[in-house]
Amino acid sequence: MAYFILVFVAFGFISQIDCNSHYDNYTLIRLHPSTVDHQKSVTEFSDPSGEIEIMKESRGVNDTLDILVPPGKMKFVHDYANTNGLKLEEKQPNYGRTLQDVSERLPRRRILDRFSVFHYNSYDNMQEFIEGKAQRYPALVQLQELGKSYQGRKMRLVKISTRPNAKNPIIFVDAGVHGREWVAPAMALYLIHRLTVDPTAFVKGGELDGVDWYILPLVNPDGYEYTRSSRSNRMWRKTRSKHGASHCYGVDGNRNYGFKWAVSGVSNDPCHKETYAGPKPFSEPETQMVRNVMMDNAKRMKLYVSLHSYGQYLVYPWGYTGDFLPKQWKKLDDMARSVSNAVERAGGRPFKVLSAGKWYPAAGGSDDYAFGAAGVPYSYTMELTEGHEFAFPEELLETVLPQFYEGFKEFGARIKAEFGRQRKKREIMDTQ
Ligand SMILES: *[C@@H]1O[C@H](CO)[C@@H](O)[C@H](O)[C@H]1NC(C)=O
Ligand SMILES: *[C@@H]1O[C@H](CO)[C@@H](O)[C@H](O)[C@H]1NC(C)=O
Ligand SMILES: [Zn+2]
Question: Catalytic site residues?
Answer without folding.
Answer: 383
